[in-house]
């Protein structure tokens, strides 16, 4: 058996590199202003390109499968936040208050698009439904996530979300996305033909935010506040959340009578959380909080969901081939 499947991918290595760079060479002063400006440009460009890439035809075609989409959205925007709040007595003793706030924020995020579709395809699921479910989650998340953050953060006792924060989300994420959708008729084909460019902007914007966020957090004493046992506790918290949602989405889909192909979509789309949307949103919504602690639960969950869902996708694929052979 090849050891490569157990090794982290290149993007994960880059994320770790940014954390290490920020830990030893944090940006400050004028450098912080420059990196923040670069990050704003990269995030705006990222959502513009996503808007130009997203196929409206595929989304419209998939809206007929409304039961599946409702279940995915309920898992993403209802089940996750409720778990984050209901499991507070179990989770909070394991981590610091700032990290728990980061876990609550993680629970409000939309689903991923690329990895949800990729794992659905590998597992032999309903790819067109996955495209629609993940895309709808990503688009609605621009509106729903800030509102959920206001609710769960208020319940947590850390204040609410200001209208200024919502306005910044709209200007930084939604306006470029809508501009991309408008420009799709002219540049959609070019964007689709240059997917590596989108990947560079996607990953580059995340790396910039991670570096600036962890730089500020390190200067505020992040690693003195997150010793080894607390980091281990955070891994346990992320693992518990992911395990509960995977079990509930998988067996909930079966109980509700969905086909195997649709069960795969619900399992993968309903259990994912988007790092690409979460990092820029955290930067806007939690500007007054230690961003390193807010982003860290999301980064660990991102890698965990990729590793576990890769194993699940291969299991689904093997079982699908076995049933066909029988």
From TrEMBL:
Superkingdom per UniProt: Bacteria
InterPro entries hit by this protein: Na+/solute_symporter_sf, Put_Na-Bile_cotransptr
Membrane-spanning ranges: 66-87, 99-122, 128-153, 165-184, 204-223, 230-253, 291-313
Keyword Methyltransferase carried by entry: no
Gene3D superfamilies, alphabetized: 1.20.1530.20
GO annotation, cellular component aspect: plasma membrane
Keywords of this entry: Membrane, Transmembrane, Transmembrane helix
PANTHER family reported for this sequence: SODIUM_BILE ACID COTRANSPORTER 7, SOLUTE CARRIER FAMILY 10 MEMBER 7
Protein name, as recorded: Putative Na+-dependent transporter
Organism of provenance: Frateuria aurantia (strain ATCC 33424 / DSM 6220 / KCTC 2777 / LMG 1558 / NBRC 3245 / NCIMB 13370)
């Amino acid at each position: 058996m090849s050891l490569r499947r157990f090794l982290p991918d290149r993007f994960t290595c880059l994320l770790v590199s940014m954390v290490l760079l920020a830990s030893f060479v944090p940006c400050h002063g004028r450098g912080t202003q420059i990196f923040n400006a670069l990050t704003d440009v990269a995030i705006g460009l990222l959502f513009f390109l996503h808007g130009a890439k997203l196929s409206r035809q595929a989304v419209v075609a998939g809206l007929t499968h409304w039961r599946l989409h409702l279940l995915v959205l309920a898992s993403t925007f209802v089940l996750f936040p409720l778990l984050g709040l209901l499991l507070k007595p179990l989770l909070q003793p394991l981590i610091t208050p700032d990290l728990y706030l980061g876990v609550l924020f993680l629970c409000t995020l939309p689903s991923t698009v690329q990895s949800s579709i990729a794992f659905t395809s590998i597992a032999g699921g309903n790819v067109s439904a996955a495209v629609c479910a993940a895309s709808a989650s990503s688009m609605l998340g621009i509106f729903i996530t800030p509102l959920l953050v206001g609710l769960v953060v208020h319940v947590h006792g850390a204040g609410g979300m200001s209208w200024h924060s919502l306005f910044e989300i709209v200007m930084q994420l939604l306006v470029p996305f809508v501009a991309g959708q408008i420009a799709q008729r002219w540049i959609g084909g070019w964007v689709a033909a240059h997917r590596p460019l989108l990947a560079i902007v996607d990953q580059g914007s995340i790396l910039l935010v991670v570096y600036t966020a962890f730089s500020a957090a390190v200067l505020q004493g992040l690693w003195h506040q997150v010793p080894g046992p607390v980091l281990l506790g955070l891994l346990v918290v992320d693992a518990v959340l992911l395990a509960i949602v995977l079990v509930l989405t998988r067996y909930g889909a079966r109980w509700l009578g969905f086909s195997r192909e649709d069960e795969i979509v619900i399992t993968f789309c309903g259990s994912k959380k988007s790092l690409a949307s979460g990092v820029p949103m955290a930067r806007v919504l939690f500007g007054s909080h230690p961003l390193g602690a807010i982003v860290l639960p999301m980064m660990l969950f991102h890698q965990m969901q990729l590793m576990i869902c890769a194993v699940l996708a291969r299991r689904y694929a093997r079982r699908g081939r076995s049933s066909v052979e029988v």
